[in-house]
Amino acid sequence: MDRVMAAQVYNRICELGSLSAAARSLGMSRPMVSRYLEQMEKWAGARLLHRSSRRLTLTPAGEQILQKSLRLARLSEEIAGQQDNATPSGVLRVACAHLTAQQVIGPMLPAFLARYPALRVELEVSSQPVSLVGERIDVAVRITDNPEPGAIARRLGECRSVLCAAPAYLEQRGAPREVAQLADHNCLYYSQFAGRTWHFVTAQGEALSVAVSGNLSASISSVLRDAALAGCGIAMVPEMEAASWLASGALVRVLETAMPRSLGIYGLYLTRDYQPPARRLFLDALQAQLDEG
Asked: Do 134 and 275 belong together in one domain?
C-alpha cells in the first residue's frame, strides 16, 4: 500500500478522532481506512492508537509518528504542487454515455483542447458502464444517484429531469394533475436507472414515487424525447435534452408542482494516490461549465 496515503489517512484519523469520520472525509470505505492504519502501525513497528468503544487516543509512539506523518504529508503536497503546474500531455481516456457526451462534455472540449494542445482526449461513448480497469479508463463521467462502490466519486454538478409530452398527446389523453395519475398514462421511461418507478419532490419537499408503464423504454434519452415529440406518451428526460423543444412549445411540462428528483453528475476514478494533472484539469473544466449552466 502507498505509505504517503497511509500517512495522510493516519493524519485524518488523528484530526477527526474516528475511523468512520476519516473514511467519510476521504471518500473511502471504513475497512480501507483500517488497512491504512494497520500499514502505518506495521511501518512504525508500534501501536499508534488506543481504541475503545467511545474514542481513539494516541499512544506515545503515535504522538511521535503523527509529527513525522504531518511533515511527510506536507512534503507530498509540495511535490504534487510542482507536478500540478506541469503542462498536461499524453492521452486522457474518458468514458461516458451518449447524453453526457453530447450535452455535457462535447461543448467544453474545444476550449479545453485549445488550452492544452499537448493533450489528446479519447472519448469512449456507451450506454453501458465500462470497466475503469479493463478498458484503461482514466475517468468516467456518469449521471447517477448511486456512484459505483470502490471508485472515487467527485460530484461535478446536478442533472435535472423534466416530465414532458406533446400538446397533442395531452389533448387526447388529458394532463395528469397529480403524481399518482401517471399510472394511467403511457409513460416512456429510461431503462438504465429511472426504470419503471419515477421519483418526485413537491414544492414542500415531500418525496413521492409512482410505478409507471408504457410501450417504450430506451437506454438513450433522445429516443424517448423524440417519441414524446411524436405524441407517443409522457417522457421523463434530462432537462438539457428537452430545453429547446420546451422553449418552442413542441413539448410542454407535465406536473409542474412535482419535480422529478435530480441526479448527480460525477467524475469517477480509481485512486487518490496519484491524480494526473490532465484528469484534475479536465474535471475542473467540466465542473466550471456545469456551474455556469
From this structure: yes
- Cell numbers 474518458 correspond to 94
Q: Which residues make Cβ contacts (< 8 Å) with residue 187, sequence separation at least 6?
A: 198, 212, 213, 214, 233, 234, 235, 236
182 and 255 both lie in a single domain: yes
Rounded CA gap, 114 and 107, in Å? Answer: 13
Shared domain for 151 and 276, answered yes or no, is yes
Q: If you ran DSSP here, which 8-state letter would residue 186 be given?
A: B
For the chain, the domain total comes to 3
In the DSSP assignment, the letter for residue 279 is H
Cα separation, 42 vs 61, in Å, equals 12
- Name the nearest CA neighbour of 162 among 218, 116, 114, 200: 200
* Containing structural domain, residue 137: 90-159+264-292
pLDDT in tens, 21-76: 888 877 778 888 888 899 889 888 989 988 765 678 888 898 888 888 888 877 77
Cell of 213: 408503464
Confidence (pTM)? 0.66
- What is the distance between the alpha carbons of residues 108 and 123, in angstroms, rounded to a whole number? 13
Residues 6+ apart with CB under 8 A from 231: 165, 166, 168, 169, 172
Q: How do residues 92-111 score in pLDDT, each as one tens digit?
A: 999 999 989 999 999 999 99
